[in-house]
Amino acid sequence: MASRGRPREFDVDQALDAAINVFWSQGYEGTTLDDLTTAMSISRPSLYAAFGDKEATFKRAVERYSQVDLRYVETALAQSTALAVAAEYLRGHIRASTNPDRPPGCLTVQGAVSGSQADQRVVQFLNTHRAAVEVRLAARFKQAIADGDLSSDEDPADLARYLLTVTSGQAIQAGAGATRDQLSRVAERALAAFRQAT
Questions:
Q1: pLDDT band at 29 (very low <50, low <70, confident <90, very high)
Q2: DSSP string covering the chain, please?
Q3: Rg (Cα) of the chain, in Å, rounded?
Q4: The whole model's pTM is what?
């Protein structure tokens, strides 16, 4: 019987969580394979075998980030009113961007610092990732209009883009040291504007 190979000697989710923190704090371009293997406590051959190259590892890290750190998106979309969706989305983003177990801000914002042509695939990947959230929010607001919960004069895509613009700004502010309380006050102002649509 052929050998099945040695089992992995590390926890994949823990390794990806470590990779998330490295990419988040240093950006994609600023992160080296040595940075990753040191943080993940694995050898370079093990990294390649489990995740692939740097770009593939980054994409796996973003997938893990979406499942764990962005769970608030699912909670927000499940709310019964458009206003509650917006409130949970903004407040959930604040909780995630000020989580003491993570670097401040947002992986898909801080991790996207990349200016070289070679890394444009990564920039496009992150743009697509953010666009997918925007599309889901827009669909939820379209349903809210159909339900009579939002004015028919409102544009669902504009409302979704507005929320993503606010949270992108909050991520930058969190990365610069803004506190949860400061970000919450900004969110409340954004919600005051959002209420005009309901």
A1: confident
A2: -----PPPSS-HHHHHHHHHHHHHHH-TTT--HHHHHHHHT--HHHHHHHT-SHHHHHHHHHHHHHHHTTHHHHHHHTSSSHHHHHHHHHHHHHHHHT-TTS-SS-HHHHTT---SGGGHHHHHHHHHHHHHHHHHHHHHHHHHHHTTSS-TTS-HHHHHHHHHHHHHHHHHHHHTT--HHHHHHHHHHHHHHHGGG-
A3: 19
A4: 0.87
pLDDT, tens only, 131-180 = 999 999 999 999 999 999 999 999 999 999 999 999 999 999 999 999 99
**What b-and-e string marks burial along 120-154, b requiring 16 or more CB atoms within 10 Å of the CB?**
eebbebbeebbeebeeebbebbbebbeeebbeeeb
- How far CA 26 is from CA of 114, 126, 150, 155, in Å, comes to 11, 16, 41, 37
